[in-house]
Amino acid sequence: MGKHGQPLNGPDLQVRLHAAMNNPEDLAALVLGGLAAAAGTDPAVGAPSSGPLPSGPLSPGSLPAGPPPIGPSSAGPEVLWAAERAYRIDDDRHRGVVVYTAALRACAEYRKAEKLLRAHQKRYGANADVWFGLAALAARRGNDTDVRVSLDNALRHDPDHAESLTWGYQYIRHVRDQARGSGEAAAEEWLGQYTKRSWRATLMLADRSLDRGDLNTAEDRYAHACGLAPRNTEMLMGCARGLADRGYLQECANLVLRVWKASMGPRPMVHAVEALLRAGEAGQASMAMTRLRGLQLDGPEQRIAEGLGERVRAACVSAGI
């Protein structure tokens, strides 16, 4: 796991905790990783993980049908100690309380967590992470109104807050299914409230359109997302993956070639070239590769580009180009 997914277990736990005890950022990463490992979730999105987390937004269709996890988990006392330590020493106004209350939730200390978040909100205000924590706790209390208000406040602060959108989608779908069915439609309607400002919500709905075979609507939504965040690499990667992973290879390449800018880095264009190779379009792949020339690439990126270039040349030779 990377820095924000370091599991809090294993024989070197005490060593890593001791090394990080005066570094709130590292402590926060250890805590989030520990909670994720204990609950089987990814710390970046708060939804159950099943392998590596894609860098783009998650599709609602990939989320489980059950209620979103809000604790408790099998996190041990060392997680709570590290979280409290991070809270005490962190100069970041919101990060410390978010990490500490997440650990409290995992240890079933729900009332203490909510009391702490409410006090923090009154004293310092709240960012999207604080509001998201309050939404999860309101769900635990069974207060649907408080859940929705907290999620709405989180998304007012950050329209692309991944946790609020993915967890909120799960929550709305589950609650509606439990009440009278049509959870999928209700969850999509909820997401639709945020598409004017949120490229991530727009991508999630675009992916759902593709899952239903509605390419025209999906492409309109991808175009809207590109207009909301025209220089956002994660957004473009989400569009590319949404199309390519569902077999729309030419459409993936066309979108990236139309929208991509050098400032976005090589990853979206690499994805487009890969899609063209999979589609058997060696000539188009060769033309797309020229867009990568002149980019400043780091070591891993350079190796990826070189390997891809070799595959494109081989495909061109095979195609008689």
Tell me about this structure:
The structure is a single chain. The chain is mainly α and 321 residues long. It folds into 2 domains: 1-194, Serine Threonine Protein Phosphatase 5, Tetratricopeptide repeat; 197-321, Serine Threonine Protein Phosphatase 5, Tetratricopeptide repeat. It is built from 16 helices and no strands. α6 runs antiparallel to α7, α12 runs parallel beside α14 and α14 (267-278) packs parallel to α16. The longest helix has 20 residues, at 299-318. It is globular, with a radius of gyration of 22 Å. The protein starts with 12 loop residues before the first helix and ends with a helix. Mean pLDDT is 84; it is low at 1-8 and 41-67.
CATH topology description of the largest domain = Serine Threonine Protein Phosphatase 5, Tetratricopeptide repeat
Element-level helix/strand string: HHHHHHHHHHHHHHHH
CATH architecture level-2 label of the largest domain: Alpha Horseshoe
Which stretches are low in confidence, meaning pLDDT under 50 for 5 or more residues running? 1-8, 41-67
Shape: globular
**How many structural domains can be distinguished in the coordinates?**
2
Structural class: mainly alpha
Strand count: 0
The CATH first-level class of the largest domain comes to Mainly Alpha
Helix fraction, binned, reads: 55-70%
The CA-CA distance between the termini, in Å, is 42 Å
Tell me the fraction of residues in β-strands, as a range: under 5%
Main beta sheet strand tally, sense and closure: none
Which radius of gyration do the C-alpha atoms yield? Answer: 22 Å
What is the averaged pLDDT score? Answer: 84
Biased composition (Low complexity): 43-64
Region (Disordered): 43-75
Organism: Murinocardiopsis flavida
Protein name: Tetratricopeptide repeat protein
